[in-house]
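Work Package 3 (structural annotation) set out to generate three-dimensional models for the target panel prioritized at the project kickoff. During this period the team completed the workflow that converts sequence records into discrete structure tokens, so that structures can be stored uniformly alongside our sequence database. As a representative example, we reproduce one entry of 290 residues exactly as it appears in the project archive.
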Amino acid sequence: MSDAAATDAQDHVYRDAFNDTAAERGALTPEQMLQINIELQEAATGILGAAPKAAQLRPQIEKELPYFDLSQLDKLVTYARAMTFAQTNYLGASTRSEQLPALIERGVAARELLLSDATALAHRGLLDGKKLTELKGSVGYLNLASDLGVLVTILRERWTDIANRTAIQPSELDDAERLFGEITEAVAARNAQPAKVASAGEERQRAFTLAIAAYDSVRRAVNYLRWPQGDADKYAPTLFANRGSRSSAHKDEPVQPIASPAQPNNPVVPQIATTPIAPGMPGASPFVDS
């Protein structure tokens, strides 16, 4: 497989993950949405690296934590890929296009060129000068685009009569006509950008919520099972390990729902007892109904 084909295949996998989780993202309520408090690519990389290791504990989780939702573990890779794709979409929507300023510069030059020749032709009675007085001017993107369209139309209507009386070339009319369309479309894209950014931002937050909530659930299960060995981080390390010198009491702090900031920050990691413990008591499985 060529490098280009491999890249396309990888992009397809991430796009598929995003599409496959659309229903789950859409089902999230505002109260369930998590604030983004970690760089998404960093979080995705952490989850993708941990998922195969956490999967090694799947048989033990299934046996000892029967109430644990195994789909949270099984979909970790899918959720992380969907989050990566959502981040890419958001960055693409947020990047201000550099196309419009360059188009405007070319448009102004083309307008001046066509107007100069058209004015000279009008003075000789070869064009309708009244139409030139109705031009809107080069101030304003759409005004400029409109003038280019009008000038091209005026010149083409009389082209048979003026072809040998002007320095304007047919290719210059073609270029001006293309600029008219490109400027119009670029302005429309710029005006639509805020809505696209808002939509992409919400999808990003929803994808983040699915991935982080699932990973937090898996970490709680892993912490419970591997507490006696003290090696839970080997299977599901914190995503916040490189975020500064916070105390150990807070380095595993998960993100919080927007509407529920008062919820406790740190999940309780229960001690493993040698005798059965009633559901709801300290040390009991976190995934058993009380």
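The longest helix spans residues 170-225.
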